[in-house]
Amino acid sequence: MKIFLDTADLEEIRRAAEAGLIDGVTTNPSLLAKAAGDRNPRELFREIAEAVAGPVSAEVVATDAAGMVAEGEQLAQIHPNIVVKVPLTEEGLRACRTLRSRGVGVNVTLCFSPLQALLAAKADATFVSPFVGRLDDVSSDGMRLIAQIREIYDQYAFETEILVASVRHPQHVVEAALLGADCVTLPPSVLWQMLRHPLTDHGVEAFLRDWKALGKPLL
Ligand code: G3P
Questions:
Q1: Could you read off the pLDDT of 45-61 as tens digits, one per residue?
Q2: Separation CA 162–CA 98 (nearest Å)
Q3: Which of 80, 183, 201, 215 is least crowded, fewest Cβ atoms below 10 Å from its Cβ?
Q4: How confident is the model at residue 41 (pLDDT cuts 50, 70, 90)?
Q5: Ligand 1 nearest-atom number relative to CA 28
Q6: pTM more than 0.85
Q7: For the chain, which residues make up each domain, given as ranges?
Q8: Rounded to an integer, what is the distance from CA 186 to the centroid of its chain?
Q9: What is the pLDDT of residues 120-179, one digit of tens each?
Q10: How many angstroms does the Cα of residue 62 sit away from the middle of ligand 1?
């Protein structure tokens, strides 16, 4: 399963990429607005794409297909790793088809139902992003959506990758992996939480204490 970092924070991206923990990055206009400050968004996307060896989702803000295609083409020119993110609307799916026919990778985002995911796959999306946390927030079942999409995509051998988004905690990642999701995108806090286990920390402390008690160099 591919692990993407869901942030536009360069420091977090570099830390995770240098540790070899991530396969790409996803952003959205809210995350970009939070990280950009005075920076030029184009420049920030370029730096993010240079920091990680894998897809970097950059989202359009136009709401009509022609505008999304125009923005998407410009975004795709920033760096070969850029994947254009479009919303799962009629205009977004039109833009998806056009961009895909021009060889641009597309992440169709804001997916909340299996039927929306079916339409995204038929529009040849590279990735579809179902938002599990936002479904859980409204007492729906985000992970059931992932299971449904997995079954539908397998049934028809769609190649669109399921990119589990709106992840809120490590258990979402466990469930996404058990269901065979292709990718997850994680806020940095969840990535670092995944790494930690108190028994690992205790184990390292005990090993070091025992070895130190012997009073010899290891090598
Ligand atoms: O990038 C899209 C998605 O991961 C957003 O998550 O936490 O704002 O629902 P959230």
A1: 999 999 999 999 999 99
A2: 21
A3: 215
A4: very high
A5: 1
A6: yes
A7: 2-214
A8: 6
A9: 999 999 999 999 999 999 999 999 999 999 999 999 999 999 999 999 999 999 999 999
A10: 19
| Closest residue by Cα to residue 161 from 184, 186, 131, 187 | 184
Calpha distance 45→147 (Å, rounded): 32
Residue minimizing CA distance to atom 6 of ligand 1: 166
> Which residue among 31, 34, 134, 186 is best mutated to probe the pocket of ligand 1, counting the most ligand atoms within 8 A of its Cβ?
134
pLDDT the model gives residue 156? 98
- The pLDDT assigned to 37 comes to 87
Inter-axis angle of helices 65-78 and 90-101, to 10 degrees?
A: 40
Residue 82, token pair as written in the block: 């850029």
Please provide the average confidence, as pLDDT, over all residues in the chain: 97
Q: What is the CATH number of domain 2-214?
A: 3.20.20.70
- Residue 15: its H or E element: helix 10-18
Q: To test the ligand 1 pocket, which listed residue (6, 132, 137, 185) has its Cβ within 8 A of the most ligand atoms?
A: 6
Q: Are 127 and 148 in contact (CB under 8 A)?
A: no
If one counts every other C-beta atom within 10 angstroms of the C-beta of residue 134, the result is 15
